[in-house]
Amino acid sequence: MKQYVIEIYRNSHAPLPYETNHQLTLTFSYWLLAPGEMAPREAADFAAETFCSELDVLEDYRGDSEYGEEKFLAACTYHLLGNRRPTIGDVFHIAGPALDDHLWLALERRGWRTITSPTNVDGEPLTAAKVLRHLGIQR
Length: 139
Description:
The protein is of the alpha+beta class and 139 residues long. The protein has one domain. The chain is built from 4 helices and 6 strands. The chain has a 6-stranded mixed β-sheet with strand order 5-4-3-1-2-6, covered by helices on one side. Strand 4 and strand 5 form a beta hairpin. It is globular and about 40 Å long. It starts with a strand and ends with a helix.
């Protein structure tokens, strides 16, 4: 098995194609435990299929596919936190266990465009504190 960290960045200029000066905000992170043969681009395709799909479509496949339930629950969490579906110009970062497993991809009208590591980023990964803040729960 191979573990990938998938990060979704919202582009402040979306739905325009990503450009290097665009502000990106990390809105969600997700840990994917994948088969050992899964490449970073395949992990990105998995993430796009999960987070760009309608929830009712994912719900239909909950028990029918290898990752059906995992995709449905991850997408539910993503949307419950108030995130919109990823669109053209948004950026996915796929970080694998090896140094060469890092991949930055901008979502395009037809697939992906590989980009260099952006510098104009903010936001935070998915944490318990982030969820509790969203829910209005103080600890």
